[in-house]
């Protein structure tokens, strides 16, 4: 698959907050990444085995509906997929200045990413060590984190600076009660977290684990930090997180039926899919812009990259938007869209507004689709489906990767 070099290859950097004595990181990781009830885990694994990744796509059936509806399967996914490996959580452009912070949530894990006074990037569990209050809300700049509950104060590099009204306490060492750190890394414009205790922080190891051999392909197709950040939009959808991923990975199958406006701007017969180790890339040529007053949001080629397990990068025309799918329960997810634009157009308000309106229309069409699929998955009339081998190979690849992650 041909690629066009558009920008320099992003560099990856890693940083890990130091583990302080008594931080109890081992205990916290064990608690959030292990199933408490062996029977629940056993039932969830029996559901995993109902899909066989060894069967070729031409003969394979899709994962059963229980993958998309059962609470025990959802819990297993959190622990074996989202609490392991590198997970995208944000954009490096939000952290250019010292003292900037941004909190978030992945499954049951509350986290906060920040830069300290010296410009070093950190990530921590966003939980006060006193009585478990959430520490940081919103986003912005701080010189320190002050707990809104009892005023315990932490430095942006993690140590406990002040514990209020603790007179008379015994066997209390402030050095043992700093914030619990999380490994943090960057690739191009993206910030990644890894909640595992033992993490190889080597630059090449992180790149290989997250993108494998696809990092250069993405770089050569314009995924880079030189783009200007425009805005964020969020959608809470009544469907399992995998329903949204499946919709994205059907090789344009649904586009002419559900996105007629988008279909008019694409040459759907040019659709192609390339599979990498943990990434799949769909490409499609853009249609003619004649009669559109030179308004061309999609450009000559649209690239849609899916990075396992839940991240999408869409590069088209002067735009890049990213979709991060966050699981909120067996039948609910949040999809976070971040929009980036080539700097020469960042002040063109009319172009930006029109482009965002077109994007919004497509997203709302997808919301209707995904919520309809979820309702069908919960019907007793449906158990498993089949793949369209010539277009849904990226979806099959996603299901195989998920099976592998759940059985490790």
Structure overview:
By secondary structure, the protein is an alpha+beta fold. It has two domains: 86-195, Rieske [2Fe-2S] iron-sulphur domain (Rieske Iron-sulfur Protein), CATH 2.102.10.10; 224-407, Alpha-Beta Complex (Naphthalene 1,2-dioxygenase Alpha Subunit, Chain A, domain 1), CATH 3.90.380.10. It is built from ten helices and 18 strands. The chain has helices spanning 25-32, 38-48, 71-82, 203-210, 215-220, 241-248, 255-258, 260-263, 349-377, 393-407, and strands spanning 12-16, 87-91, 100-106, 109-115, 121-125, 140-141, 145-146, 153-154, 160-162, 183-187, 190-194, 228-237, 266-275, 279-286, 301-307, 311-316, 319-329, 332-341. The strands form four sheets. It has a seven-stranded antiparallel β-sheet with strand order 12-18-17-16-15-14-13. The protein has a four-stranded antiparallel β-sheet with strand order 1-10-11-2, covered by helices on one side. A hairpin with a 5-residue loop joins strand 4 (109-115) and strand 5. Mean pLDDT is 89; it is low at 1-11 and 16-27.
Q: What integer value in Å does the Rg equal?
A: 22 Å
**Order of strands in the sheet with the most strands?**
12-18-17-16-15-14-13
User: Helical residue percent?
Assistant: 25-40%
- Please provide the count of β strands: 18
> What structural class is derived from the secondary structure elements?
alpha+beta
Report the total helices: 10
The fraction of residues assigned to DSSP E strands is 25-35%
Which sheet architecture does the biggest sheet show?
Answer: 7 strands, antiparallel
Distance between the termini: 32 Å
Overall number of domains: 2
Order of helices and strands: EHHHEEEEEEEEEEHHEHHHEEEEEEHH
CATH class of the largest domain: Alpha Beta
Please give the CATH architecture of the largest domain: Alpha-Beta Complex
Shape: globular
Protein name: Choline monooxygenase, chloroplastic
InterPro entries: Rieske_2Fe-2S (IPR017941), Rieske_2Fe-2S_sf (IPR036922), Ring_hydroxy_dOase_asu_C_dom (IPR015879), Rng_hydr_dOase-A (IPR001663)
Pathway: Amine and polyamine biosynthesis; betaine biosynthesis via choline pathway; betaine aldehyde from choline (monooxygenase route): step 1/1
Family: Belongs to the choline monooxygenase family.
